[in-house]
Amino acid sequence: MAITARPGLADIKPYKSGEASIEGRDSVFKLSANENPLGPSPMAVAAFKECLDGLNLYPSSDHSALREAISERLGIDSDLIVCGNGSDEILGLLAQAFAEPGAEIVYTKHGFLMYPIFARSVGAQPIEAEETNRQVNVRDLLAACSPRTRLVYLANPSNPTGNRIQSGELEWLANHLPPHIILVIDGAYAEFNEPADGSLDLATSRPNVVTTRTFSKIYGLAALRIGYGIGPRSIMDAIARMRAPFNVNGPAQAAAIASLKDREYMCHSQSFNRQWRQWLRLRLEASGVKCDDSSANFLLARFDGAKKALDCDQWLRKDGILVRRMESYQLPHCLRISIGSETANHAVADSIDHFMRR
Ligand SMILES: Cc1ncc(COP(=O)(O)O)c(C=O)c1O
Fold first, then answer.
1. pLDDT tens digits, residue range 174-194?
2. Which domains does the chain have, with CATH numbers?
3. Ligand 1 geometric centre to CA of 87 (Å)
4. Which of 5, 288, 313, 332 has the CA that lies 20 to 30 A from 124?
5. Which atom of ligand 1 sits closest to the CA of residue 85?
6. Which atom of ligand 1 is nearest to the CA of 33?
7. pLDDT band at residue 14 using 50, 70 and 90 as cut-offs
8. CB of 313 closer than 6 A to ligand 1?
């Protein structure tokens, strides 16, 4: 008998990350992956370097020092925290632990592309809830749930739209979801969202709400792959049993702990993003390109049709600028532009302005 992979795996469209290079160019402005243009905190870099002498040693398996640092910083019990190799790992573990073949996992029309991949990887059916003008409606999410639903994945702020859901609406959803469904509030961009959305309170007080956070975005540690989940003890205990013993490497744990101590860096990261997001949005709108109000570290630029967005992408590439095309998110008339360095922001704003006026 031939070897066959689990049914459903062949239906997975592999995730494509933001492009990083353009053939024939030595350097580019990479605004395609929502990375932090400031780089990590100097304290994180120093902590990382200190690990170089101990690369022969296994890292902490229970991540106790990091969980303690997160617990202190957020004022929550460290038993409610599980660390992962990126928040991606935590999101995937939730599907592995709680959804079985034939179950359903609900997410929204323009939701993060990993959600259907997590569903299919465990043989579950991904179910897409409608969005209205790129805005998640919690009533539509609830309507998409059934007795077979195990998880609802919801990013707040959302990637790629940058839109946020008000905390009252999140609470409404948590109140109305049947108790057999876990609401997973993906907070990859939570620290850019002002004011906070209340997901931490929900995850520490409800039996079926989990939220995730990452060090990849606000803390600029994407290369180290480190994130965490917060939720009820029974749920966190289940995913902690499934993870590999050394799922988070030592330098990543050390750098994350140091990052949490550097409040100045964190505040600068937030205010830099706030300032340049507003600046770029005004520049784009002055060039005739509309954007929704973003609560994250990127903007979703809307063009008059897919052809114009594609032409603009080509134009930007010619200027050495990489942004993210949005066909796979069912937004072919849009381009997602990460907030970059001052130079990169000027470059993308000028290039789009020339494109629109040509
Ligand atoms: C909405 C969303 N969730 C989760 C992630 C995963 O982040 P990481 O695995 O780097 O923590 C990303 C990364 O871009 C994201 O955009």
1. 999 999 999 999 999 999 999
2. 18-39+264-357 (3.90.1150.10), 42-261 (3.40.640.10)
3. 6
4. 332
5. 9
6. 14
7. confident
8. no
- What pLDDT sits at residue 31? 97
CA 216 to centroid of ligand 1, rounded, Å = 8
- What per-residue confidence (pLDDT) applies to 4? 87
pLDDT in tens, 130-148: 999 999 999 999 999 999 9
C-beta of 86 in contact with ligand 1 (< 6 A): yes
112 in contact with ligand 1, CB cutoff 6 A: yes
Question: Atom 6, ligand 1: which residue's CA is nearest?
Answer: 88
Is residue 87 within 6 Å of ligand 1 at its C-beta? yes
Which of these ranges, 3-7, 90-94, 140-144, 204-208, has the smallest mean pLDDT? Answer: 3-7
- Compute the distance between CA of residue 281 and CA of residue 301 in angstroms, rounded to an integer: 9
Ligand 1 atom at minimal distance to the Cα of residue 222 = 10
Question: Is the CB of residue 45 below 6 angstroms from any atom belonging to ligand 1?
Answer: no
For ligand 1, atom 2, name the residue with the nearest CA.
Answer: 188
User: Ligand 1: does its nearest atom lie under 6 Å from the Cβ of 227?
Assistant: yes
With a 6 Å cutoff on the Cβ, whether 105 touches ligand 1 is no
